[in-house]
Amino acid sequence: MSIAVRRDERGIALIMSLLLAVMVAAMAVGVYLMMGNTNLVSRFHTNEAQMKYAADAGLEWARNQLNSGVALPAPGAGGNQIENNVIVRDAGGAVVGASVGDTLRRSTWIAPSGNTTGEYGIYASAIVQVTNKRGATVYRRGELKQDPFSRFARFFNTWSCCAWGPAETVFGPLHSNQGMALINGAPGATFNGPVTTVGAITNQAVGHFNQGVSTGVAAIP
Length: 221
What we know:
This protein is α/β, with parallel strands linked by helices. The termini are far apart.
């Protein structure tokens, strides 16, 4: 005599199917989270680059302000804030970051730095701070230098009685806050650097301007 044993494995198959479904769902969630993290990292780097560009633009703006006549504070007097938490705009006037709801704001300071006697030129530091709504902050510092008069080979604030002889040669930049005159004759005065004058140049055609000449420029105080 033998006893027949019934083997029903349908319950095990159901459990395995459930485990497989859970594994597939976990993988799908993992992929979704990875994609979301990648998007967040990409957006972070995009915002970071945008803030850096806004700060670099602030340095150029500060340089332009100094060239336009904004005065530096006296040495030891601290910095001068020329922008205070202003909204950053692009070259077309649009608000930077407005399209994604993360408007950027910028503050800018300028101050004398380095050698402050003026003997070797005038130096300034520009410091720019850019922040977004989340509180992320980018700083940029730029060193600016005002050219001293020593960069000119010749500089004339007044031009009265004299004229360049036909055999004279000038090496380096030349500037006159008035006009200038050349004497007729061969081979003609030679200028090996750029020449700029506020007024006209008498007998300009006889000169040799190897790096160009510009008349009617603005006077240099």
